[in-house]
Amino acid sequence: MKDILNYIDGRFVPASSGRWLDNIEPATGKVYSRLPDSGAVDVDAAYVAAQAAWPAWKNVSVDERSRLLAAVADRIALANDELAVAESRDTGKPVSLAKSVDIPRAAHNFRFFAHAITQWASESHGMGPVAINYTLRDPLGVVGCISPWNLPLYLFSWKVAPALAAGNCVVAKPSEITPMTACLLARICADAGLPPGVLNVVHGTGADCGAAIVAHPGIKAISFTGGTKTGETIARTAAPMFKKLSLELGGKNPTVIFADCDFDRTLDEVLRASFSNQGQICLCGSRIYVERPIYERFRDAFVGRTQALAVGDPSDPATRQGAVVSRQHQQKVLSYIQLAREEGGTVLAGGEAAAVPGRCAGGYFVQPTVFEGLPADCRTNQEEIFGPVVTLAPFDTAEEVLRLANGTGYGLAASVWTGNLALAHRVAAALEFGIVWINCWLLRDLRTPFGGVKQSGVGREGGVEALRFFTDAKNVCVKL
Ligand code: NDP
To answer: If 0-12 CB within 10 Å is exposed, 13-18 middle and 19+ buried, where does residue 190 land?
Structure first.
């Protein structure tokens, strides 16, 4: 069994309490490693190390910070296969997905911010002959990064890379369910030459370790990705301390398909948008609205393609659907499938736990599942399931589908599929979501603002938005 360790002040250490948590492989249901069950004492040790490292780190030249982050990116890319296997084992996701998406994108995050920081400039506002203003953007100090289990290294690096690039020191916590690649990243950062204390990784539960990061009075900002309820809890703790907060929360995303779409391409991409990573991506489209003239054709083709998705051992390169992340999450997804039945939905595909024989007989698998016949306001269509479950419904007009699409408390991402560009722009403008994809899904340019509205979060990450979040602006006004 491999022990995962905290990384504090450049050293790999267990929790100060000596307590451990089991780390379970979701594809088998078996414990395969353990992680420190850290709490406030460990978080404070990480903070002290980070605070001590900060004066030197914030004065490291931009070129040197950029070089170090690029060195981390290079090492992630070199270790792609090893990291992908670790990520697949920790999460249950197909190793093919981890190899082609999760790990390359984690390397890309570090490379992007290594470059971005060299190109970043702040504003100057001239007042003619009277005065000139210029804005300084100072790093905040020690910041907290808390990430979820669905895209562990990808989302961990999405926070840590801009925080470091902007000159902050970091106390970071990955999900206790998927801690492995954050531990491997700590080793990579050490090997790349990141000074001790600049990045600290503390493992443990959300209730103890995560809450201690949020509550720590010295930690100046929290960048959090996770569930909406957890986001509420974090906001309640952080608000009286006036901490900066970036909250990337849940979604219940609509997929809007017009009759004039490129049918085959839409079918391919909507299948991916529905079931990638077993539907456990905050951006997955789980409410699929199809214009009535092609509803039946699309439904039948989509159901056929869903039934053909290979559910299996995530380590098998042929597998397209792996395990969901935990027994608890499997039970949650299955309970929503039961609820959808009770709400009057018809199961067109899936609808059960999936059995994968052999090594994975004890794993947490769910068949990719498609429902139709559910009203827009039922719980299945309103609440985030975060699993391989989608609903299909027809619509007749753009106005109707906009009402349906906007009719939830969430507002993270939407996709629209049509050959009519004027319609696409009109619909995109009226969708109440932070991200709208037209004729594509999860096509990412890291310079663009990323985040949601309504219950999907507060603030934006990505590009200069992230660099702004991780700095404070100071205006200097000079009378001429
Ligand atoms: P959680 O909110 O349960 O957990 C997210 C992280 O917060 C984990 O590291 C967790 O630790 C930690 N945590 C839990 N409770 C607290 C607390 N009280 N204080 C501080 N930290 C805490 O989310 P999940 O891990 O279940 O992730 C799934 C959710 O994330 C979904 O709702 C999904 O939509 C959302 N998400 C949003 C994205 C976006 O960009 N908007 C992207 C990806 C996911 P631990 O796991 O150890 O309990």
So the answer is: middle
CATH superfamily, domain 2-249+456-479, is Aldehyde Dehydrogenase; Chain A, domain 1 (3.40.605.10)
The minimum-distance atom of ligand 1 relative to the CA of 230 is 2
Q: What are phi and psi of 70, to 5 degrees?
A: -65, -35
Question: Is pLDDT of 1 > 70?
Answer: no
pLDDT for 348 equals: 98
Q: CB within 8 A of 309, min separation 6: which ones?
A: 271, 275, 320, 321, 368
Please report the atom of ligand 1 found closest to the CA of residue 250.
Answer: 34
Q: Which fold has domain 253-446?
A: Aldehyde Dehydrogenase; Chain A, domain 2 (3.40.309)
* Helix, strand, or coil (residue 137): strand
Atom of ligand 1 nearest to the CA of 229: 2
Residue 235 CA to ligand 1 centre (angstroms): 13
pTM, entire model: 0.97
CB of 277 within 6 A of ligand 1: the answer is no
Give rounded-to-5 percent helix, strand, coil for the chain.
45, 25, 35
Gap between the Cα atoms of 356 and 365, Å rounded: 8
Which amino acid residue places its CA nearest to atom 31 of ligand 1? 227
Protein residue with its CA nearest to atom 43 in ligand 1: 282
Closest listed residue to residue 170, CA positions, set 58, 248, 249, 40: 58
* Residue given tokens 């009277």 in the structure block: 130
> Which residue's CA is the closest to the ligand 1 atom numbered 37?
249
Residue nearest to atom 25 of ligand 1 (CA): 148
Helices assigned H by DSSP within 179-294: 180-192, 211-215, 228-238, 263-275
Q: Tell me how crowded residue 70 is: count the other CB atoms within 10 A of its CB.
A: 18
Q: Using a 6 Å cutoff on CB, does residue 214 contact ligand 1?
A: yes
Q: What is the mean pLDDT of residues 90-98?
A: 98
Distances from the Cα of 148 to the Cαs of 177, 182, 225, in angstroms?
A: 9, 11, 6
Cβ within 8 Å of residue 229, ≥6 positions away: none
Q: State the pLDDT at residue 2.
A: 81
Active site residues: 248, 282
Domain range list for the chain: 2-249+456-479, 253-446
Q: Is any atom of ligand 1 closer than 6 Å to the C-beta of 210?
A: yes
> Of all helices (H) and strands (E), which one includes residue 342?
helix 327-342
Q: Who contacts 421 (Cβ-Cβ below 8 Å, separation ≥6)?
A: none
Q: Ligand 1 atom 9: the closest Cα is on which residue?
A: 175
Instruction: State in Å: Cα 395 to ligand 1 middle.
Output: 34
CA–CA distances in Å: residue 411 to residues 232, 258, 404, 431, 455: 16, 21, 12, 9, 7
pLDDT tens track for 323-366: 999 999 999 999 999 999 999 999 999 999 999 999 999 999 99
State if residue 227 touches ligand 1 by the CB under 6 angstroms criterion. yes
